[in-house]
What does this fold into?
Amino acid sequence: MIEHNEKEVAFFGKITAGFTHEIKNILAIIKESSGLLEDILAVTEDEAFPHKDKFKKSLNRILNQIQRGDDITTHLNKFAHSPDHSPTRVDLNEMAEQVIFLAHRLARLKNVDLVASPHDASIMVKTHPVALQMALFLSIEIFLDSITSGGKIILSPRKVRNKHIVRIHHEVAMPDVSHIPPAISSSTRWKSLQEAMAYLGGMVETDGTALEILISLPESIDE
Amino acid sequence: MKEMKVLLVDDEEEFVRALSERMEMRDVKSDIALNGEEALKSMDEDLPDVMVLDLKMPGIDGMEVLRRAKKAYPGVQIIMLTGHGSEKDEKEARRLGVFEYLQKPVNLEKLMRTITKAYKSKFEDTMSAAAFAEAGEFDTAKEILDRDKKK
It folds into this structure.
């Protein structure tokens, strides 16, 4: 049984969120300071100086990395604020996007693309956001464990006849029969995923292949 | 239009100085305050048209500066620029009449556009209030000048 110590999670979130705010301040200082160098460079465009090209390239690299750092910090901040209000109403489309960002680095190590296929409208459910993100993350990890390299994992939130579903689907371009991955339910993470879904009052199913996980949630965890 | 006066308020001194220098390179001069107390004192001495205000600062924080500034000087347009903002903070700032609520790190061109928009809005309000006052419609003039406070 997963132990859900809400106070510990809230404390962890609070400290992490505080530091993400500080990191944002640091990024803002680096951004404005390098921006100032860029401005100076722009007004002295006609004046040559040694290694000017290298200077400009380096400046661009700094600005690109600031953007990257800002994106990561924004998502980490959002994640850290997840336990602030729990349970709360969340949009499954947004949750899928958020988890894809959080799992991006892991997927990149196996050359796997993570893709969201959002529903055409918001799918609102009242649930525990941290546990839901954990369940979606575990689903991605289950596929990544069995993948040697390449392919695509697609997260598709859907609302079908009052059922609130996220389909996590592994799409392989060229199935290699010599490397058929084991069935999902034999994964060591499967039990954790089942426990997380039980905590959320939902269900997790697989069609028996190594290609699909179906998560379904109640509209409200209070139900 | 007269030259606009901008007040930058942030306890991150290196950030606010770099920002001020970049704005100066775009011909926009600004004063700097490094905390809430300095900001309120600066407003009493030389009222800005637009204030760019950080939220979390030691002592009087940005939300309190916003509250007091909008009460004492409703015509001043205030842009909140923060790395600490939550949805709750944004909602409260908007209730208090903030012109715009931006997250750090911000794109400078976006900030400059927002400052210009805020200034134009203030300038237009002042001009129309003056026109109403000249026509003897003092209540309408006052209503326009108080409008930002109620936004």
Q: What stands out?
A: The helical segments of chain B are 13-24, 36-45, 62-72, 87-95, 108-134, 138-150. Chain B has one domain: 6-119. Strands of chain B lie at 6-9, 30-33, 50-53, 77-82, 100-103. Residues 40 and 68 of chain B are 8 Å apart (CA to CA).
